[in-house]
Design a protein that fits this description.
globular; 8 helices; alpha/beta; Rossmann fold; 7 strands
């Protein structure tokens, strides 16, 4: 079971990215389960995700970094037993620290073949988010194995390039890519093939 964690602030485009990634993985005949963590008692994205005919599981009523660590471990084990997925696409709340989540998973000995972080950065709000929550934003960027820049269609090419350069400076090991929002299915397939390596 492979775990892929989609990190990023609220509104960055995590759910849309997960749907696109899920479609790519299922085209390769991979068994996919989506796990999401909403702060509050309602899973706002659940209906949207289930429209895509994918198994969706939820961790509700708290942030995974604060109160739900045990629940995460138990849910991942339950998913492994009940669904035996090839890939779990995990969307934590936007205020989660992905490095802390992975530490919990590894410390608990959850059986995952590999774990990776895809951090999605909103090109339009990058600077303002960095000002409001610099430690969180920089931690999400630094933990990424892949950095996706969303909403590049809402900013100038110069600003998108500046955001890409800033991300590369904060995490020089992670490839920086423009997100596949709005791409035709074939192009989106090629995009995720580049991210996941086929």
């Amino acid at each position: 079971m492979r775990l892929i964690l989609f990190s990023g602030f609220l509104g960055a485009g995590k759910t849309v990215s997960i749907l696109s990634a899920s479609a790519y993985l299922r085209k390769l005949c991979r068994r996919v389960v989506i796990l999401e963590n909403e702060v509050g008692a309602v899973a706002y994205d659940e209906a949207l995700l289930k429209e895509d005919d994918v198994e969706v599981r939820n961790l509700l009523a708290g942030c995974i970094c604060c109160t739900l660590s045990l629940e995460l471990v138990e849910e991942l084990e339950r998913i492994r037993r009940e669904h035996a997925p090839d890939v779990v696409l995990f969307e934590p709340t936007g205020i989660a620290f992905p490095d802390r989540i992975l530490k919990v998973v590894r410390f608990a000995g959850v059986e995952v073949e590999s774990a990776a972080v895809v951090t999605i950065v909103d090109a339009e709000r990058y600077e303002s988010i960095l000002k409001v929550a610099p430690h969180l934003a920089e931690s999400q960027i630094a933990a990424a194995d892949v950095l996706l820049i969303s909403k590049t269609d809402l900013v100038t090419a110069e600003r998108a390039a500046a955001v890409a350069a800033a991300l590369a400076a904060l995490n020089p090991k992670a490839p920086v890519k423009a997100s596949p929002f709005g791409l035709p299915p074939g192009d989106a397939f090629t995009f995720w093939e580049g991210v996941f390596g086929g």
